[in-house]
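Ticket #4471: structure export looks truncated?
Reporter: QA, pipeline team
Priority: medium

Steps to reproduce: submit the single chain below to the structure queue and open the exported record.
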Amino acid sequence: MVSRDLGDAFPGIESIPGVCGGEPCVVRTRIPVWVLAQAKRLGTSEADLLRCYPTLRAEDLANVWAYSRSHRDEIEGHIKENEEA
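Actual output as written to the record:
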């Protein structure tokens, strides 16, 4: 487990099979990265996200934005899949 954490480029984001369909989520939560990325795209402010998701911290959002930038195609795919559902 320690080696997994050390090798993880995005320590605030985790993908666990069987949790939220294995989609990347914010650690300690079941909030998928794509949900927050889509909310930001639609104009939701960070302050509003932190208010709506009281378990989130500002650090979590910074991790989400970094992950979203580095995995743009993956996140876009999750958004598209969930819009079609």
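Status: closed, not a bug. The export was complete when the record was re-opened. Leaving a note from the reviewer for reference: Residues 1-7 have pLDDT under 50 and may be disordered.
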